[in-house]
Amino acid sequence: MLRAFPAEPTVDAGGTLTLHVATDAPRYSLRLERWGGGCVPVAEFGPFCGVDAAPGAVDVPWDWPAVTLALPPDLRSGAYVVRALVDEAYRAPKGPREGTPDARWGTALVVVRAPSRARVLVNLPLFTYHAYDVAHVDGTLGEGEGECLYSGPRTVTLLRPGGGTGGHPWDEINVDVYDRASPRQTFAHWDLHALDWLAREGVDVDLCTDLDLQRDPSLLDRYAMLCSFGHDEYWTRERRRAVERWVEGGGALAVFGGNTCWFRVRYDERTRTIARDGKWSDDEPEDAFTGLSFRHGGGKWIGFRPATGYRIERDHALLRAAGLRTGDLVGEATTAIGYECDGVDRRFAPQNTEVLARASIGHWDVSDGSGDVAPGSHAAMIVYRRGEGAVFNAGTADWARALAQGDAGISAITRAVFASFTPRR
Length: 425
Hints:
The chain is of the alpha+beta class. The protein folds into two domains: 2-113, Macroglobulin (MG2) domain (Immunoglobulin-like); 120-133 and 169-424, Rossmann fold (3-Layer(aba) Sandwich), CATH 3.40.50.880. Helix content is 15%, strand content 32%. The chain has helices at 126-132, 191-201, 210-215, 237-248, 287-290, 317-321, 399-404, 408-421, and strands at residues 2-6, 10-12, 16-23, 27-35, 39-49, 66-70, 78-85, 107-113, 120-124, 155-157, 205-209, 225-230, 234-235, 252-257, 263-268, 273-279, 293-300, 310-312, 329-330, 340-343, 354-360, 371-373, 378-386, 389-393. It has a nine-stranded mixed beta sheet, with helices on both faces. It has a five-stranded mixed beta sheet with strand order 2-8-7-4-5. The chain has a four-stranded mixed beta sheet with strand order 10-16-15-13. The longest helix is centred in the C-terminal third of the chain and has 14 residues, at 408-421. The N and C termini lie far apart (48 Å).
């Protein structure tokens, strides 16, 4: 078996990727693949001599042996996976499989920066990946739940396997019955579906991670639109302030996800760790920024949900562009509402928030502990102006899955958002 993690989750085309690797295999090679609109192998490295190492502490960078890979200068901007190639004798279940970037070992995710003319920046939720990451512990085998921000520790390091792929997520045991191909809280589960859809639509995008926005807020100034998909749950104060200022100056934020900006974390550059810092709702409600909150929504993360879609509530240019009218139902066929979703409360949302659609989830049965839904809970889809910019929030984590499954209404709304937001600057 082989596990690995990058020293830096974002690297430049033509630069050097440092990968920390531990393996019981005597020799191994590595293949670099670009994902998004299919898989494109771009380079192979090695062979290397294998060196094994023990897992480290949850809150301290793992001091594993490193190899350096010289990246080709002609790489395109995008999401890349480093895939381990080892002899069959050293393979194990849940390792690298052809046709997917998802694996519990033998893969590592990196974002490559390269010159481009893209006007859209897609954020990969690195902090959320690591908040759920238990690295080498397989909870499905009854070995315990591992250590992450959900199982006790308040601080976790980004320098261990599992930042999107190549490790075990804490809730792996709760299989997503709507997409069994990968566990939640991994790159393949929501983010890759979004990148595949954008590639099919011919939308040129660059990628970043939470850490990029944390370190360099000016990165946003190159783009007209910032978007995220799936489950972008963990935000630092610095990232939120940066995005708020950018939107007020004319940027367009599109959230195609749910349970967004729910927990606040602190990032420590010296130790390369994130630590829980409470919920945004404690003193700076997230819906004052995102327009929506999990406080007014909910989730069902185990088993099937009642097929639920959005009922369009108002006439709006975005919806007209999508060919939708008041009263239309969107997303029910793909059960697009869930697995977690956010609702609206006008006491907390910006005053000019326009509710485009709503879906009641108060009737979902979670009495067996399979979710968290309060009476009257709902999901909402909203848009509002903020300064010179604008915010769209889809309000549901499974939006990208609905895109992947060809939901016509969800796809039409997404196209309308990109068409409306990208010409802003």
